[in-house]
Amino acid sequence: xxLYQKLLLTLLSALFLFLSFKELGFFAWFSLxxxxxxxxxxxxxxxxxxxxxxxxxxxxxxxxxITELFVxxxxxxxxxxxxxxxxxxxxxxxxxxxxxxxxxLRIFLIPAxxxxxxxxxxxxxxxxxxxxxxxxxxxxxxxMHITRFTGIYGVSxxxxxxxxxxxxxxxxxxxxxxxxxxxxxxSLSILLLFVTYGIISVNRNxxxxxxxxxxxxxxxxxxxxxxxxxxxxxxxGNEIIPLPYSNSEYFLxxxxxxxxxxxxxxxxxxxxxxxxDWAESTAQAKNLYLILGQYYHNELKTEWHxxxxxxxxxxxxxxxxxxxxxxxxxxYIPHPRILxxxxxxxxxxxxxxxxxxxxxxxxxxxxxxxxxxCFESTLPDIARRFRNNGAEAxxxxxxxxxxxxxxxxxxxxxxxxxRAIENGCYTVHSTNTGxxxxxxxxxxIVKKIDxxxxxxxxxxxxLIPYKTFYARFGNLILYxxxxxxxxxxxxxxxxxxFKQ
Length: 500
Description:
This protein has helices at 3-19, 33-39, 44-62, 75-99, 103-121, 141-144, 147-150, 152-176, 182-202, 206-213, 273-286, 336-339, 380-388, 408-423, 469-473, 476-499, and strands spanning 216-224, 257-259, 265-266, 289-297, 304-311, 317-322, 361-363, 367-373, 393-398, 427-431, 436-439, 445-449, 455-463. It is of the alpha/beta class.
């Protein structure tokens, strides 16, 4: 196969992979096939070139929404940085295809490499999980329910395994001129096992389960102010006061908790006089608890936090969560002594102080809520830690106003949807300009407000203390699988060299 043919196949793979994140998830099931054919029996240089095209091509499409930001100049930095992960993945797949002759070992090693790189992308302060393949199947709930055991990487694994076994089946036929479906049968059997479990899980009657288990209920109102970037922070806060529910009430009767999104308040509550006056009269009259996203500071304004703050009906602070994982170079400069030379990339208004406390909010007489702020919902381990520390539901606060009407706010909602399934609990996704939603533990979007709409959604969430396997043990299944496969691969390499 000539180089230009390999490059065309590579671009086709990048296109299929990109389309799988455009609400066309079925493309994921054969997205890797052209790339595998491009790498098969290629030289290292050819595989490297194809991997570069694959990585850059995919992430250019997937991160194009960054051009909506006022700092669109960072877009090349981001897609080039993200593409490095796929370049490394491609190089490792090259060696597996061309150095390992045992087909069964290949069909498990390639998915193992893929999910290992995806896992590494979620680590350190540079974590960037956009493009994790499993999220492309968010609408395929029977398959997504395997995340209760494996996390999102279990879904990525079965997609790549399916691609690889189809590839090996075709290669076997081309080499031996006879069909052999035993490799494909392996992935199909695992897929059917996963989906069968998911169907059983999805079909459970959630209302019956809640009734029998007698879970605590909280009646919530999630406010979507719909204030675009640059139009906030009047100094009075009246722009975030929601429209009243009726002529006589601001919120639906019986509402217990009102949730506002990330950074609706700049500074302290006292600095937003109109909003504070409204909140005092409304919260006390209706006995409401409030969760507010706030950028708050010390007296000298030398230390800033991106926080979620829980207020009781008397507007006393009874819980504070400071964002643990802000976006580097957008909300703070990581390791400034080492990375200070990259300050030209920094467009944060303030340099946030990182939090380190995973203690859930406690609603008196009700239960505990875990908090994710903005980008944190894209990192599975943060919600899981809150869940492991006793959180019975998750609240995600975000301000996606700078993203305008791009695909990014929808992708952000998908992350929260998967967190709900992984952890087996209700999740409230509260944003400034959309999409605000209530998500059930099964991944159903119960209610939502679409982009660029001002409003309030009302609903009941149930506090579920029972934890999923993933919530309790994290990526244990991933570690066991990789450990076993590493041992088998080491033995294979040793025996192969010994025979030589």
